[in-house]
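I hope you will forgive my troubling you with a question about protein structure. The full record is reproduced below for your convenience:

——
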Amino acid sequence: MVRMEEIFGINVFNDSVMRQRLPKETYKALHKTIDDGRRLDPEVASVVANAMKDWALEHGATHYTHWFQPLNSVTAEKHDAFISPLPGGAVIQEFSGKELVRGEADASSLPSGGLRSTFEARGYTAWDPTSYAFIKDHILCIPTAYCSYGGEALDKKTPLLRSMEALSKQAVRILHLFGRMDATRVTPTVGPEQEYFLVDKDLFDRRSDLIFSGRTLYGSRAPKGQELGDHFFGTIQTRVQAFMADLNEELWKLGVLAKTEHNETAPAQHEMAPIYAIANVACDHNQITMEMMKKVALRHNLVCLLAEKPFEGVNGSGKHNNWSMFTNTGYNLLEPGDSPHESAQFLLFLTSVIKAVDDYQDLLRASVASAGNDHRLGGCEAPPAIISIFLGDELTEILDALEAGADYSGREKTELTVGVHALPKFPRDTTDRNRTSPFAFTGNKFEFRSLGSSASIADSNVVLNTIVAESLRQFADELEKADDFRSALHELIVRTIREHKRIIFNGNNYSKDWVDEAARRGLLSLPSTVEALPCYTAEKNVRLFETHKVLSASELRSRREIGLDSYAKMIKIEAETMLMMGRRQILPAVMKYAGSLASSLNSLKEAGASVMNGPSLLSGLCEGIDQLKDNMDALAEILNNKPEPESPDLSARYMHDQVLPAMVSLRYCADQLERITDRSCWPFPTYDELLFSVQ
């Protein structure tokens, strides 16, 4: 029996370890860097490095690595041994402060989006002391930022840290206006729920589409899917429970606050949810979680699928990004309060988010854009591509009353004048939840539900932090100049509600009526990645990121280009995989079955037996074979005719407009053939096997 208290964080160089192993003055100096953002003293770094090395060696580590998150949404690491030569052929294990603080990595082989030329190879990794080092597979992993020789951010962590600073700076300005002088720092917190599928590895290994793209490119729906709702929150199968138990143990050892586990909506789909953490730590932990899910699954002869839509016709997988803001004194700024002072403050921070989401819908949509997520958004319980906010009826009524200058006549009939009368008591769960909303207020936080399951959460939180920082900056600029703070505050909140209430929608986001209503309101609809990613370099968005020193124009262009290039390459890989499977597996299998059926029909005829519908079945197979071949030829021709020279924009657009429709046509034809081909002849595992075989 594993005792969580005994194993939690044992592989993490966390605060309690540092308190035990570092001299008191070194520990205090390091915390000034972590808590206040002060520059790290080199002497402090040297002491920390030595203590970290000794601790790592005691835990069986042989190497260290600067663990970073490049712009391909995965993690990267280069291992160096703690080994240094001594005269006479002896060695010593060393780790200096310089090696802790800075490393060097190749900045040309990893994606840079034009920030680096092929011959410009120098890049640097820099220790992030706000995220604890940890041991994984006998390697001391040091979370780091990653930048180019010229200082451009080549990773996900650097802009996330910058955006956290930007948000803190503006939020503290607002808090000081309310007299909260003890607030010196505001930190965004995140709890990312992680959805995933588990399939049997033996079946996975027989499907090239799962191997190369992580999703099924062919597959007729099983007779049963998620229609009965019997899998969601259902009894967890023994094999899956064993996987979850091992996963929890590995995550707890690494300090990840894994808390909730359950079956999700689709068969073979599950979810893990952690307790919230500081945004950059939550991002690191989510990357660790995805890696551990894949590793632990293999121990159980399973494969963990993190693709957003691995199976057609059932629920896709995403991440629900639960975001809030906490002061250094432990106060949640999105927690509704009871006193007039707290009520006004809550309403100001609430409306700052409403304004931010309305002003920068395009950026939020771009932050979740990918080839995989395009298949998921808007289908089978994923939110649509149109960004809107769900507040619930009671909070919406309060805002409506404020705008109209009327008394709030809800559960408590209270005159609502900001700064004079109290906001009615607002328990955390006074309203229903809305599973169709992309951005929902859930009591004391916002849940951004549009993130894809395989993506880093960094991009979305960079955007969230920065756009809310901009709203707060505008609010602070106005309120700091006001002669009468309370009157100016009331007028600002009411004006913000009036100008941005179009983004609030509490209804069914799946309905056709909402699509029409959203268009009438002037909300953006960006259904695909090729439409969403160019928003990164819109003039207003470049100005936003540069104002807050989060991303430069060149860094934004790089992210746009990398995203579009990845999109085009992913579609190309999928298309070529479909052709390979169609030519080498499906076509031969169906032809063999047709030949066998023809032979059987001839034998039956010769014996004088009735063949009933045999000829029509054979005819259907032959027609399907011809259509399959025609569709494969059409897809191959479209791929071969891809225009040159390419740019990421043109290439992605071509893949979206030309290749994807051809892939859909080919899949439809193949899936029709699967329905009439003898099961024993079909060349790879079907949906019913993949989705229902793990017991």
